[in-house]
Predict the 3D structure of the following.
Amino acid sequence: MVKGSQVLRFLVPEGGWVITGDDYASIRWDQGVTPISEKEFVEGFAKTEKWLADLEAEKEAKKAAAEAKLTALGLTTDDLKALGLA
């Protein structure tokens, strides 16, 4: 489940906000920061969820590619650990 703080980190990565819950009313904007709208915040939950899922899929794909390379070389992750490389 995506949290309000994750949504804000995705939509306003430069910061300038504090959130104490998962609703728009719990956001406090620092002086000089242009707040996003409540609609942008609410829609941000779905966008953030997709972004996090994409990041996880990319991580898994990189892991699978690395494991495939190890397998092609006749190695395992345990072999790398034994060599102190993992």
